[in-house]
Amino acid sequence: PFTDYxxxxxxxxxxxxxxxxxxxGRQRSSLKTPFLRPFVQNVLTxxxxxxxxxxxxxxxxxxxxxxxxxxxxxxxCERALVGAMILANKARSLSLYTNDDILSTKAWSxxxxxxxxxxxxxxxxEFLQVLQYDLSVTEEQL
Length: 142
Description:
By secondary structure, the chain is mainly alpha-helical. It is 61% helix and 0% strand.
């Protein structure tokens, strides 16, 4: 249920961002691979991500719609999720909202089961650029 909601929001955002050349001949459902739901579930449960962090990540995904550009669809949803989750975890941990620990690059890499630490850092940097380095979130966005 909650994981399905996260998957749907993720697919909606990434499908809007994909280059038209990749989308030709493919449908939105092609982003919902059999691997995506377990991937999201693993990232959320292995890292024990609080619901509030997921909500911040979803707000980032929503805000990213106008700037996110994806030229290759393979692993696009997974990369966007990891980038948004890392930034949400850091923003919440460094703000007044919480005293949660900041998860390491290694923790995100391990929970993904597919990305190296270098891939995780790249996803974080790319998503930070998409958000134009603005990690603020209003109550209305949540």
